[in-house]
Amino acid sequence: MSEMFTATILCLTLIPVGIVLGFLLLKIQGGEESEL
């Protein structure tokens, strides 16, 4: 049962983290050249 719980926590944690990291990478790559 704990494996399922851990998997759920990992999913709920990694999804927002991935979104934030992707956003930060776009900000860094865009940097001075903001192409939105």
From TrEMBL:
The keyword Electron transport applies. The chain crosses the membrane at residues 6-26. One of its GO terms (biological process) is photosynthesis. The keyword Flavoprotein does not apply. Keywords: Electron transport, Membrane, Photosynthesis, Transmembrane, Transmembrane helix, Transport. InterPro entries: PetM_cyt_b6/f_cplx_su7. Coiled coil: none annotated. It comes from the Bacteria. One of its GO terms (cellular component) is cytochrome b6f complex. It is a single-pass membrane protein. It is found in: Membrane. This is Cytochrome b6-f complex subunit 7. It comes from Chroogloeocystis siderophila 5.2 s.c.1.
